[in-house]
């Protein structure tokens, strides 16, 4: 099993946040952290994030929590999304793959 790198996790956080039309400050406020923490995570410094924040982030960003800890995930979760969310996530995943798994975020 191939795990995602911290940089790849940061890319996922950033793209999912952008898909939700949230600023770093807005996501930080919803999670009870500073915008600087969100910026840090998005830049690939994702170590030692508290479990409750990971859980809340997954809910806010509507992503599988396994992605936020670096575990690869099957795309079956796309079936659970609304049509608009599914199209956005499919576009995100396609872009992610085209960039070589998050090369330059």
TrEMBL record:
HTH cro/C1-type domain residues are 13-68
What InterPro entries would the database entry show? Cro/C1-type_HTH, Lambda_DNA-bd_dom_sf
Give a single Pfam family match. Answer: HTH_3
Q: Name the source's superkingdom.
A: Bacteria
GO molecular function per UniProt: DNA binding
Write down what this protein is called: HTH cro/C1-type domain-containing protein
